[in-house]
Design goal:
The chain is α+β, with helices and mostly antiparallel strands. It is 48% helix and 21% strand. The strands form 3 sheets. It has a 5-stranded antiparallel β-sheet with strand order 2-1-5-4-3. β3 and β4 form a beta hairpin.
C-alpha cells in the first residue's frame, strides 16, 4: 500500500482500473454461477417431477402399488424409467412410505429415508435432499389408483454431482469469455493510462495543480496584459492587466473576439494570425504596445496570444519632455538675441556714443513683440508659440498666429493643452514641409471662450487623402510612409477628451490650403472674473 501511494499517478490509475475490472468480473461471474446453479437445480428438479408424473399416470403401476406387490412389474418399470431418463434413482412406495421399487434390491420393503408425509398428503414436491444414494435433486408425486385414492408415491432423483458437472462445463465456457473481457479491459486500461500520461506530459496531478497555481500567479502577477484566443476565436485566457488596459467590463473568458472592443490594429492582428511586433495603439485613454504570436503545434492551429504593455505614462513624459525641449530652445534663442543687444549697447556706451545708444534702445523697444503678442497673455502659450516659430523657421516654414487670436486668461491644464497644440502644430509643420506649395506656412488661431480654449491649425500641405479622412484619428493610421507614425492624433484626441472636449478634422483639403484641424478644450482656461 505504501508503495502504491507513492507510485506515479498513471500506475495508480492502471492498478485501480485493473482492480475494479477484476472485482466486477469476479462478482459478476460468481453471481452468474450462483444464479445458473439455482436455475439448473430447479430445472433438474422439474425434470425429475416430470418423470415421476409419467410413471404415476400408468394405471398398472398404481394397481401394483395398491396391491403392495414388490415382486411384480414395479422394479422393472422403475429400472426402465431410470435408464431412459438418466436419473440417479426411481423409487416407488406404498401408502405407508415402504419401498416397493429401488435401485438397490436389499432396500426394498424398507421405509424411505426422507419424510414422505407431504407427498402422501397429495402434494407434488421439488427439493434437494440427501438420501441413501447421496445428495440429489428430487421430484416427488403421489400415486393414485383408478378411484383417485393415494396408494403410494413416485420419487425420482438426479445426482447433484451431475448437475455440478453440467454447471462447471457451462461456467468454463463463460470463464473463457470473462477472461477475454478481463484481458481486453486490462489492455484498454493500459492504453488509457499511457494516453493519460502522454496527455499530461508525464506530470503528476500534484505537479499539474502546482502548474495551474503558478500559471494563475504569473498571469495575474505580471505587469503585461495577456489575451489568448483559441482557433475558434474564443477568448481562453485574459488576465487582470489585459482587462484593465483594454477597458473590458467583466471577465471575457469564453466570449468571442468580435464582442471585445479591440482597437482596429489589434483586431487585424488577431484576424490575420500573423506575427506582430511592438505595434503602438490607443485603447480608451491608454497608449499600448502590442505583440501577437500565433500558436501552432504539429501543424495544428491552436489560436494565438496577444501581449499588451502600458506606454501611457512613458508617452506622457515624452510629450512633456518635447514641450520642455521646445521651451528651452526658444529661451536659448532669446538669450542669444538679448546678449547680442546688450553687447551692442555696451559698446556704444563705452565709446561715448550716448545718443546712438538711446536711439538703439528706442529701436529695440519699438521692435515687434514676440509672436505670442499681447493677444495671448498665458506664458505657456506665449513660450510655446515662440518656440514653435523658431522650430518652423529651421524647417523653412512660416508659423503665424492669426490676428483673430485672443486669450486673456491663464491655462489651467498646461499638459493637455500643450499636448494637443504640440501634436497639431507638429503635424502641420511636417505637412507644410512635405507639401508642394511654396512658401510653406502654418496658421495658428487661439481663441478664448469662457473656460474653453478653441484651437485651429491650417497648413499649406497637400491635405489628407479622402480614404484616410475618416480614419485619421485611428491609432496606426498616418499620411506618412515612415514606420512608427500614426499615434499623435489619437493621443491629441485622447488628451482633449480628458478635458471633456475633442479634436476633429474640419477640412481634409482646400483650394488654397491643406488640412484644417480644430480642437475644443473645455476647462482648459481659468475663467475670467470681472470685478465691479
Amino acid at each position: 500500500m505504501f508503495r502504491l501511494r507513492h507510485a506515479p499517478f498513471a500506475q495508480q490509475a492502471l492498478a485501480l482500473q485493473v482492480g475494479v475490472l477484476v472485482v466486477v468480473v469476479g462478482v459478476g461471474f460468481a453471481l452468474v454461477g450462483w444464479l445458473f446453479d439455482d436455475e439448473l437445480t430447479q430445472q433438474y428438479g422439474t425434470r425429475a417431477l416430470a418423470v415421476a408424473h409419467t410413471l404415476a399416470a400408468d394405471p398398472a403401476i398404481a394397481a401394483a402399488a395398491a396391491a403392495d406387490d414388490p415382486d411384480g412389474i414395479l422394479p422393472g418399470r422403475a429400472k426402465a424409467a431410470e435408464s431412459a431418463s438418466g436419473a440417479l434413482f426411481v423409487v416407488i412406495t406404498n401408502r405407508l412410505g415402504i419401498r416397493l421399487a429401488h435401485p438397490i434390491r436389499e432396500r426394498i420393503r424398507q421405509p424411505v429415508s426422507t419424510d414422505p408425509s407431504e407427498v402422501l398428503a397429495g402434494n407434488d414436491t421439488i427439493n434437494v435432499e440427501r438420501g441413501t444414494l447421496g445428495l440429489s435433486a428430487r421430484g416427488k408425486t403421489p400415486l393414485r389408483d383408478a378411484s383417485g385414492a393415494i396408494v403410494g408415491e413416485v420419487s425420482v432423483g438426479f445426482r447433484i454431482e451431475d448437475i455440478r458437472g453440467h454447471i462447471n462445463r457451462e461456467l468454463g465456457v463463460a470463464a473463457i469469455f470473462a477472461g477475454g473481457a478481463l484481458l481486453l479491459g486490462c489492455v484498454g486500461s493500459v492504453l488509457l493510462s499511457r494516453r493519460l500520461k502522454r496527455l499530461t506530459l508525464g506530470l503528476e496531478p500534484r505537479e499539474l495543480a502546482e502548474l495551474v497555481q503558478e500559471r494563475e500567479a504569473v498571469l495575474h502577477g505580471i505587469s503585461e496584459g495577456v489575451l489568448a484566443v483559441d482557433a475558434d476565436g474564443l477568448v481562453s485566457v485574459c488576465n487582470d492587466e489585459a482587462v484593465r488596459l483594454l477597458g473590458i467590463a467583466g471577465a471575457p473568458t469564453g466570449s468571442t473576439i468580435e464582442t471585445l472592443a479591440l482597437p482596429p490594429v489589434l483586431r487585424d492582428a488577431v484576424d490575420r494570425r500573423a506575427p506582430v511586433d511592438n505595434v503602438i495603439t490607443v485603447a480608451g485613454d491608454r497608449v499600448l504596445v502590442a505583440n501577437y504570436r500565433a500558436v501552432r503545434r504539429e501543424e495544428r492551429d491552436l489560436g494565438g496570444v496577444l501581449t499588451l504593455r502600458d506606454r501611457t505614462d512613458l508617452e506622457t513624459i515624452t510629450r512633456e519632455l518635447d514641450s520642455v525641449r521646445t521651451l528651452s530652445t526658444a529661451l536659448r534663442a532669446q538669450r542669444h538675441e538679448f546678449a547680442n543687444r546688450l553687447h551692442v549697447l555696451s559698446g556704444l556706451l563705452q565709446n561715448g556714443h550716448g545718443g546712438e545708444a538711446l536711439e538703439f534702445l528706442h529701436a529695440v523697444s519699438d521692435t515687434a513683440a514676440p509672436m505670442g503678442g499681447h493677444t495671448v497673455d498665458d506664458p505657456y502659450l506665449q513660450a510655446f508659440v515662440d518656440a514653435k516659430s523658431a522650430e518652423a523657421a529651421e524647417k523653412d516654414v512660416r508659423l503665424a498666429l492669426a490676428d483673430t487670436s485672443w486669450v486673456g486668461t491663464r491655462v489651467t491644464a498646461p499638459v493637455e493643452v500643450t499636448t494637443v497644440l504640440g501634436i497639431l502644430v507638429d503635424n502641420a509643420l511636417e505637412a507644410a514641409r512635405r507639401g508642394a506649395r511654396r512658401p510653406a506656412w502654418v496658421d495658428l488661431a487661439l481663441l478664448e471662450d469662457g473656460a474653453t480654449l478653441h484651437i485651429s491649425v491650417v497648413d499649406s500641405g497637400d491635405g489628407v487623402e479622402a480614404d484616410l479622412a475618416g480614419r485619421v484619428f485611428d491609432a496606426g493610421v498616418s499620411t506618412s510612409a515612415e514606420d512608427g507614425r500614426g499615434i499623435g492624433l489619437a493621443l491629441a484626441r485622447q488628451a482633449a477628451r480628458r478635458l471633456g472636449g475633442d479634436v476633429r478634422l474640419a477640412a481634409a483639403a482646400g483650394d488654397d490650403h491643406g488640412a484644417v484641424f480644430e480642437a475644443r478644450l473645455p476647462t482648459a482656461l481659468q475663467p475670467l472674473v470681472i470685478r465691479e
